[in-house]
């Protein structure tokens, strides 16, 4: 879930937007810069209540919107994938940032929770364009015409809803380890394998484990954009969303618990396995993990989504709006792929022939 609100410039009456370059609110018409705190008095979203913590996963991520706070917000719904994004009444949300299909305004926004935190955009649209060009550099199988013919259909800065999980975990692991010793005499080579039962137990804490709260944003794609520096997150203010879209969460915190637990358990296994040292190898036999004192927060992460078209096929790329990390699949020239295959096969055949002729 998320939103966007309009502020009018007191100098020229234009719409003020958050500028990621100067990290302040800026009017794109008269270029007047405003301190964010100066505009905070216009924002009725400053009275967030901190989420309560208790045993187990905290259900109180986010909070309710104040009366009048969502005025000016509008829902834009994609008719192809069903995705809903939030914008203001002047937002030019003509296409879906996920599937690039046309979207239509369906009504005024209401409901859902207000985020606890937001990571503001640090990089602008031009940085996303440059990142796409850099992403194509050095790709030998990329069709030559792709870079020249490729054009960007749509670039959208969108805040993706993310649930952040925090917990302490007690873990107990049992491993079967082995040590292998080899030696030889004048007649034989000997191998001795000794086996050991290895136990590891302890407590490990996790904070701000992210889980994507949008069905439209592929979990693997969102996780490939990590890490986001959560230390740079700030208390949510609608001012940060001015000029951007914000995805409306359609996966709630309760549903996201399973994926959060899976990510945490995988990390616990990895960290405890690192402590089993001094052996030739080992296998895990048993494990026990218990979570407690869990808390949940609701945040918005900045992502640039670029949709491009080439040869009748659409390609979608994404960039971390904070760090600039860029991901996305590129097309491969089939004729080049076969050329490389035949060259590699020919070289292998020649090497095999030369080696065979030596004997």
In short:
By secondary structure, the chain is an alpha+beta fold. Helices cover 20% and strands 37% of the residues. The chain starts with 6 loop residues before the first strand and ends with a helix.
Note down, in words, how this protein is organized:
With about 350 residues, the chain is α+β, with helices and mostly antiparallel strands. It has a domain at about 50-65 and about 115-340. It is built from six helices and 15 strands. It has helices at about 35-40, 125-135, 145-150, 220-225, 255-275, 335-355, and strands at about 5-10, 15-20, 25, 35, 75-80, 85-90, 105-110, 115-120, 150-185, 190-210, 235, 245, 280-310, 315-320, 325. A hairpin with a 4-residue loop joins strand 2 and strand 3. The longest helix has 24 residues, at about 335-355. The model is unreliable at about 40-55 and about 340-345 (pLDDT under 50).
């Amino acid at each position: 879930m998320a939103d966007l609100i309009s502020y009018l410039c007191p100098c020229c009456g234009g719409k003020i937007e958050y500028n990621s370059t100067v990290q302040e609110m800026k009017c794109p018409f008269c270029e007047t810069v405003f301190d964010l705190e100066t505009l905070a008095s216009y924002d009725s979203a400053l009275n967030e209540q901190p989420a309560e913590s208790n045993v187990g996963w905290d259900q109180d991520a986010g909070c309710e919107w104040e009366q009048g706070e969502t005025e000016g917000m509008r829902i834009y719904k994609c008719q192809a994938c069903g995705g809903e994004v939030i914008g203001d009444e002047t937002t030019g949300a003509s296409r879906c940032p996920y599937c690039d299909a046309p979207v239509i305004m369906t009504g005024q926004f209401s409901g859902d929770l207000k985020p606890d935190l937001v990571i503001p955009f640090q990089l602008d649209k031009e940085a996303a364009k440059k990142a796409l060009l850099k992403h194509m550099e050095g790709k030998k199988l990329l069709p030559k015409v792709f870079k020249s013919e490729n054009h960007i259909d749509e670039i959208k800065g969108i805040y993706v809803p993310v649930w952040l999980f925090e917990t302490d975990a007690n873990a107990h692991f049992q491993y079967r380890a082995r040590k292998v010793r080899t030696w030889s005499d004048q007649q034989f080579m000997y191998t001795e394998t000794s086996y050991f039962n290895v136990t590891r137990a302890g407590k490990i804490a996790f904070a701000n484990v992210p889980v994507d709260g949008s069905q439209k944003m592929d979990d693997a794609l969102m996780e490939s954009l990590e890490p986001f520096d959560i230390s740079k997150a700030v208390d949510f203010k609608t001012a940060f969303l001015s000029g951007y879209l914000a995805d409306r969460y359609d996966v709630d915190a309760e549903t996201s618990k399973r994926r959060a637990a899976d990510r945490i358990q995988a990390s616990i296994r990895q960290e405890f396995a690192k402590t089993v040292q001094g052996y030739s190898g080992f296998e895990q036999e048993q494990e026990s993990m218990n979570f407690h004192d869990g808390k949940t927060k609701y945040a918005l992460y900045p992502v640039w989504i670029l949709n491009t078209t080439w040869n009748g096929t659409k390609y979608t790329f994404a960039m971390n709006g904070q760090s600039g990390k860029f991901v996305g699949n590129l097309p491969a020239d089939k004729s080049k792929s076969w050329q490389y295959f035949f060259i590699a096969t020919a070289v292998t055949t020649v090497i095999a022939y030369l080696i065979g002729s030596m004997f």
